[in-house]
Design a protein that fits this description.
It comes from Actinoplanes octamycinicus. GO terms for molecular function: transmembrane transporter activity. With about 400 residues, the chain is mostly helical. It has one domain: MFS general substrate transporter like domains (Growth Hormone, Chain: A, Up-down Bundle), CATH 1.20.1250.20. Helix content is about 80%, strand content about 0%. It contains 19 helices and no strands. Helix 1 packs antiparallel against helix 10, helix 4 runs antiparallel to helix 17 and helix 8 packs antiparallel against helix 16. The two termini are about 40 Å apart. The N terminus is likely disordered.
Length: about 400
């Protein structure tokens, strides 16, 4: 009888531990990127980085997420999700600690790629961990780790400039974020010792070819469009505000506001999305907010900077929405791994040209109107793909 009583307790403890590990990992999934934007001017001056190379820097995340993310299912099948996630966290710690001290732009980009390769592995596998440990609470748990992700992104965006000022060096201000990744590592090292922590493919049935499923392509396009928007915001929004005459500190706070809105909105939206049959209406509404926000920036960034920041913060919640949809569209954790890898891998491939194009258009025109007009136009395919991805279908 005592053995029977211990089993639910162990299960509850295991789920609680998994939730802590999920949250700690999620905190680190964007701070490697959002910490760069507020001090991009200082990085460019310190490394002699051109606008084109800076645009390439904003594209490094999507390149890494597309290429490395596609490898995650194969690695997870061989090693288990928890060991792969632990390895990803190790790469993140190493990259974040080393890149600020790179002597030139090329090595800075390379070390950024190391950190982001680690994030790519974690990105793909976390939805399967949610599906495996919390099958009846997918929306709520996805919302919770999306909140953690946004808190990490917000902290990095808001605190990097003050940290840089305190240390008197942007390199130290940027490098201190390696500590956050280091704190998140031990739980995953412990989980990696339990091979059962990872969903394995069902050997009794052949693997699902998600590339033949229309809903998988809709998710991939939606993921790509929202990623384009997100990384343009991450890479260029502070600079857009600074070029409009706002101070570096205010630009950082406005950018942090955009990220901070994802905390309550992402949690609420994921919880709602997990309970309704179709998420199409939510996806369409978010796209309309995006059109309004980018149109405002196009008209005049300084006219109502707080309003534009709020509108773009709302459209950024497309990320937790698409994560929730990925987990809901797969019937099993193993299918979610494949669907997550496909949607994120193909989605990030779609997103690769976006930040580079925006930087090139800015250089070519000497302003932000043409790039922002492109962003308004890209909301149309995002709305369309979101409508089809949100329909009540499962693989």
């Amino acid at each position: 009888m005592a053995v029977l009583d211990e089993q639910p307790t162990r299960s509850r403890r295991g789920r609680a531990f998994a939730l802590v590990a999920l949250v700690l990992a999620a905190v680190n999934l964007r701070l490697a990127v959002t910490s760069v934007g507020p001090v991009l001017t200082e990085i460019r001056d310190g490394l002699g980085m051109s606008s084109t190379v800076a645009g390439l820097l904003t594209s490094v995340p999507v390149v890494c997420f597309a290429s490395v993310g596609l490898l995650a299912p194969r690695l997870a099948r061989r090693l288990g999700a928890a060991p792969v996630i632990a390895g990803g966290m190790l790469l993140l710690v190493a990259g974040l600690a080393a890149r600020p001290f790179a002597p030139g732009s090329a090595l800075f980009l390379l070390l950024s790629a190391v950190a982001l390769a680690g994030i790519a592995l974690v990105n793909v596998l976390l939805p399967s961990v949610v599906k495996d440990h919390f099958p009846t609470q997918v929306g709520t748990v996805t919302g919770l780790y999306s909140v953690a992700l946004n808190l990490g992104a917000t902290a990095a965006a808001a605190a990097t400039v003050p940290l840089t000022s305190s240390f008197g060096d942007w390199r130290l201000g940027l490098g201190c974020w390696a500590l956050a990744a280091l704190i998140a590592l031990p739980p995953w090292l412990l989980m990696a010792r339990e091979r059962s922590a990872t969903p394995a493919p069902d050997a009794s049935t052949p693997p699902v070819r998600v590339s033949r499923q229309p809903v998988a392509w809709a998710l991939a396009v939606y993921f790509g469009m929202q990623s384009t928007s997100a990384y343009v915001i991450i890479g260029w929004l502070p600079q857009i505000y600074r070029d409009a005459g706002l101070s570096a500190e205010l630009a950082g706070v406005l950018f942090a506001t955009t990220s901070l809105l994802g905390v309550p909105l992402g949690m609420a939206l994921s919880a709602v999305a997990g309970k309704v049959r179709s998420q199409s209406g939510i996806a369409v509404a978010l796209g309309l907010f995006g059109i309004a926000g980018y149109s405002g920036l196009w008209a005049d960034p300084a006219a109502a900077p707080w309003l534009w920041a709020i509108l773009l913060g709302i459209v950024n919640t497309a990320f937790p929405l698409v994560l929730t949809m990925i987990a809901l569209r797969g019937r099993t954790p193993a299918t979610v791994v494949r669907l997550s890898a496909f949607a994120q891998g193909v989605g990030y491939l779609i997103a690769i040209p976006g930040p580079i194009l925006i930087g090139a258009l800015h250089d070519a025109t000497g302003g932000w109107r043409a790039p922002l007009a492109v962003m308004v136009a890209l909301m149309v395919p995002q709305i369309t793909a979101g409508f089809f991805a949100g329909r009540n279908r499962q693989i």
